[in-house]
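Consider the following assembly input.
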Amino acid sequence: MGLMAASKAFFKLLFNKELSESFQQLVDGRLQPKLESKPAKPVRKSEPKPKRSDAISLLSALQREARFLDIVSESLGDYSDAQVGAAARDVLRDSGKVIERMFSLRPLTEVEDGASIETPSNFDPAEYRLTGNVSGDGPFSGNVAHHGWKATKCDVPQWSGNKKTEMIVAPIEVEIA
Amino acid sequence: MASKYVIGIDLGTTNSVMAYSELGESLDIKLLKIPQLVAENTIEAHDSLPSFSYLGTTAETENGTLNLPWAEERDFATGTLARSRGADFPERTVGAAKSWLCHNKVDRRAAILPWNAPSEVSKISPVTAAQQYLEHLVSAWESEFPTTPIREQQVVLTVPASFDPVARELTREAALAAGIPSDFVLLEEPQSAIYAWLAQQGDQWRKKLKVGQSVLICDIGGGTTDLTLISVDEEDGELVLRRVAVGDHLLVGGDNMDLATAHSVSQKFAEKGTKLNPWQSVSLWHSCRAAKEALLSVDGPATHSVSVLGRGSKLIGGTITVEVDKSEIASALLDGFFPACGIDDRPQRQPASGFQEIGLPYESDPGITRHIAAFVNAHCSHDSGEVKLPNHVLFNGGVFKATEFQERLLQVMSDWNPNDHSCQRLDGTHDLDFSVARGACNYGWSKATGGIRIRGGVAKSYYVGIETAGLAIPGAPRPLKALCVVPFGMEEGTQADVPSSEIGLVVGQPVSFRFFESNTRKEDAPGFVLDHWTEEELDETDPLQATLTLENSEETFVPVKFDSRITELGIFELWCVGVNSQGQWKLEFNVREE
């Protein structure tokens, strides 16, 4: 029981920044433990869940819903443009749905391509990338070459499998006759 | 304890949705994101929960593949994973449980689903399936709002307007078992669609609906079609909405249309020598839905290509494409499901073929316009031989994303009375996917805060069958009469004494009454007796029964009269009340197979 609680605490501290900071303070003696009488919660039997990289979960969703990995892994040289186009139409449509659902991508600016735009004077280079004749600190004005993208959310599926299978992106499919 | 939220639940035939709002000054409806399995071990939150159950294998349960954040050792899954498993393992997947709930040829508390499943699958009952979907929604709520449990909130649950009292009772049973508070309210789905429109219009609705007008709500879900007529009246200078009629329960919906499209497109693949496996058939189904929506939008393209991707990892080489013309889809779907027809046309009842599996009683006539013709003819007024068309049509259900369906329906209806140009699409946004849950939420909020309510009461009249006394003729059943126990329009929270001659019931043995309902007999008062009727007039549903007990009495016979009630929450109850004694006994629906 004690080992279980300790290992639960370990994973909590590992993944929760706020909690691990107060734990550090507690160990350093800077923080007095708050005593609260909470109703005893039923102890969950399960082991702490392993965490898998969101990148693998995203790949897995793109393959499952859109066959994305199949199309990018295939050698395009073997096929005509029409064949590639026919397959790509469905894959692109379904990939787009997955990405929209998980990230809700929106242009970073409402200004259309080719129209003029003015940057703030102290802009973040992560937000604007200037090309051409740049001198001084700005503000700058120029034409939009690309409207940029931003994700308005990041809702990648949670995964609850075990350590052994965390790198599996798509299972083997077997048809039983 | 005062509720903090009002929650609207749309328990759909193919998708379930949950909307909520704080019970505050203003209505602010949001959809609850529902975490669910989308693949093994993979959980994602979506706006809707597909109403499917997948009954897992032992290996899946032991590996925890179907576990949810709130449930360990799960041996079944509900939602997206269950729906996609339907293609690979139909014998382990339960769908359309809601249609089974109102199918009175089977015992709906018995473990009968998946229908025709092999013996190693432990089946579940239609009521249990509905309970599983609702439990999933309740758990999603509790994990999002742990400090405001659902049992302390106001809950509104929607049912099809055409659901009979038994199906409503079974829905209630499933809801209570799932942990929904017992004071939840049942609301009819098409009314809910109107409440969603009202929420979105705000005060503007008074400018868009005029006294004397009517609104037809055409709600085509995945598996069912539901019709309702609302009239706009005036009371004390205020506009009042009144629900005047509901249609029959029609088992035809959007899934039938997608299957019909997929069937006709798969012929084209067959011509190319391609035989589709189950996985490809499902992917074809999805592609056909996309093709339907693109081709049948007004000003849509003339052709659309439909591809089936190669099954193996060689995707591009295995992909086959066919071109689908708008005219082909239009003739298959518009003429198949929305055929041009006259106001006097009626749904065609095809004689059943020799062998008929029980299964679900799908409509023999998928022509929705013919069902609407029968409905409009029965419930809209006729002036000088011409029918007065509804002034507005409110569309609901994902089917109508193919906007040509809306146009076709309005066109067919306008042709019923060329002099009447008033039949128009109800002005405003028709939220085709989520309006039922949103509207339920608005209804709960209006109920708590005193906003606009649709009047209506019961949409049908109800009857019990009474065998007439007299000499029995050997071999012939005694003549049956139908005694009206609930009049059309009886309001929630009221009761009716049913005047009748005394009925003698045997003590200590189960007594049973046949039970009927009518969509069309709107004038019958409680106590009215019908000697004969046509099949169109009265529909028989499940019988009612009770076992009468009398303490401290030698009597073997009790004379009783009936007393019917519609509870505040919309549930029908029928009681036998002793004429000479104090006893009263509630009759319960018997949903067992005969």
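The interface with chain B takes residues 44-46, 57, 60-61, 64, 67, 70-71, 73-74, 76, 78-79, 83-84, 86-87, 89-91, 93, 155, 157-162, 165, 171, 175 of chain A (CB under 8 Å). Ask yourself how this observation constrains the way the partners meet.
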